[in-house]
Amino acid sequence: MFRLQGSKVLAVDMTGDAVKAKNGSMVAYDGQMAFKKLSGGGEGLRGMVTRRLTGEQMTVMEVRGQGTCWFADRASEINLVSLQGDKLFVESSNLLATDAGLRTGTTFTGLRGASQGNGLFTTTVEGHGQAAIMSDGPAVVLRVSAQYPLTVDPGAYIAHQGNLRQSFQSGVTFRTLLGEGGGEAFQIRFEGDGLVYVQPSERNTIAGDV
To answer: What's the DSSP call for residue 171?
Structure first.
């Protein structure tokens, strides 16, 4: 159902089924399509659209019909993730589209940036199907094992899946280690067994100059 057309455009072939996607991300379609805007708050799909403490909101649309839709967002690189009953944790700004059959919601992941409340809630996607996540530059998938925990700069983090424990280490980032950066800073540490998706370009976070 999901396929990449180049690295920055997602093509979704539909035969009467539906896809959920970031509002405004559709760039073209053929065939017969119906569109519905979905608003946020609460459980299920609607839980996908808010981070309560930051005021950040993501508007989602449902596309249903016969034909092909093409999606893209600000020339971001697109990465396909197949879920086989497992759960994907992803930053809401990096989620482009999901199969309509996948369940979406939010989960509390801990204090990032303490008093600022940055990233307290992360979007979850679970079930059987495909999701498309975006990255600024080609994403890198890193394996975490019991012997090899992973520490990630929050500005580079996109998503993770598997049996992973996530914790936050405040007071330092990779840049502050070198005496560059300032403000409240932290790292994200993953332990267990799973995959972490990172991007080669850092976005700014409320938690500090990372």
So the answer is: S
CA angle 96, 99, 103 (to 5 degrees): 95
Q: Give ∠ CA 108-112-114 in degrees, rounded to 5.
A: 110
Q: Are 57 and 23 in contact (CB under 8 A)?
A: no
Q: Which domains does the chain have, with CATH numbers?
A: 2-198 (3.60.160.10)
Q: What is the DSSP letter of 81?
A: E
Task: Please choose, from the candidates 29, 10, 49, the residue with its C-alpha nearest in 3D space to the C-alpha of residue 131.
Answer: 10
Q: What is the pTM of this model?
A: 0.81
Closest C-alpha to 196, from 77, 91, 101: 91
- pLDDT (tens digit per residue) in 52-89: 433 445 678 999 999 999 999 999 999 999 999 999 99
Cβ contacts of residue 82 below 8 Å, gap of 6+?
129, 130
d(CA 81, CA 98): 10
Sign (positive or negative) of CA dihedral 201, 203, 205, 209: positive
